[in-house]
Every structure is written in C-alpha cells, then in structure tokens.
C-alpha cells in the first residue's frame, strides 16, 4: 500500500480528513473533533451526508439499503454490524433506511431489500440482494474491491 493520502469523512462531525493509506490501520482520529475515524460499526446515512461518504471519500463504501418493516433486513443487521468490525478500515460500511430516505432508494434503483451496494468515488462497483451472514458479506465485499 502506498502513502497517498485518502480523504476520510469523520463519522461524527463530517469533517474531511487526509489520512495516508499506510496509516489507516493505526486508529486515525479526526483533526476537528478528535474522535476515531473508525469504530467498527456501520454509519446511518441520510441524503444530507450520503455523498460525503459515497463520492468524496477515498474509501470504498458498502451500503445496506434496508427498511424497519423488513424481516430479512432485521435478521441481517447484526451480521452487517459484525462485518463492519472486520472490514474497516479497508472500506466503510453504512446503512440507508429506504423508508426514511426514499430518494436514495430511487437514486440507486433499489427494487428489493436488503440490497448491498458497493461504491467507490461515487461509482457503483457491485450489488447483491438478499440477507447474508457476516462471512458471506465479508467474502463478497473483499472479492469486489479493486486490487
């Protein structure tokens, strides 16, 4: 891995931080609020902060599009959270509630939930529909990442 700085949005205050790629695994913290940039849990994104993490960030973003009434979504939620602890800091995991954020669901043409969408710099790399266990989420995401 090279030492090229990546732009990483703070999950707490939204500030953009430049972090050398080689330092991602060293628990970097935000330059503004001083909290950890990675805490091993998925972010809850809204339309207001989605592009900061999906387009402006140098990290790939794995998004779980879900809804509170969806049984398979609720079943997969703890599996997705466990996957975040395993996949960070190589990529960021986030959740989008399609009931609260229908515009984001429409933007990504979400037709069934749960649906995982892997993005990098605003471009969709891959998608997978249906509930998955942690091990399959991790394996699928790692297989889709650019080498």
TrEMBL record:
<protein>
    <submittedName>
        <fullName>Thioredoxin</fullName>
    </submittedName>
</protein>
<dbReference type="InterPro" id="IPR013766">
    <property type="entry name" value="Thioredoxin_domain"/>
</dbReference>
<dbReference type="Pfam" id="PF21352">
    <property type="entry name" value="Zn_ribbon_Thio2"/>
</dbReference>
<dbReference type="Pfam" id="PF00085">
    <property type="entry name" value="Thioredoxin"/>
</dbReference>
<dbReference type="InterPro" id="IPR049299">
    <property type="entry name" value="Thio2_N"/>
</dbReference>
<keyword id="KW-0249">Electron transport</keyword>
<feature type="domain" description="Thioredoxin">
    <location>
        <begin position="22"/>
        <end position="146"/>
    </location>
</feature>
<keyword id="KW-0813">Transport</keyword>
<dbReference type="GO" id="GO:0015035">
    <property type="term" value="F:protein-disulfide reductase activity"/>
</dbReference>
<dbReference type="InterPro" id="IPR036249">
    <property type="entry name" value="Thioredoxin-like_sf"/>
</dbReference>
<keyword id="KW-1015">Disulfide bond</keyword>
<dbReference type="GO" id="GO:0005829">
    <property type="term" value="C:cytosol"/>
</dbReference>
<keyword id="KW-0676">Redox-active center</keyword>
<dbReference type="InterPro" id="IPR017937">
    <property type="entry name" value="Thioredoxin_CS"/>
</dbReference>
<dbReference type="GO" id="GO:0045454">
    <property type="term" value="P:cell redox homeostasis"/>
</dbReference>
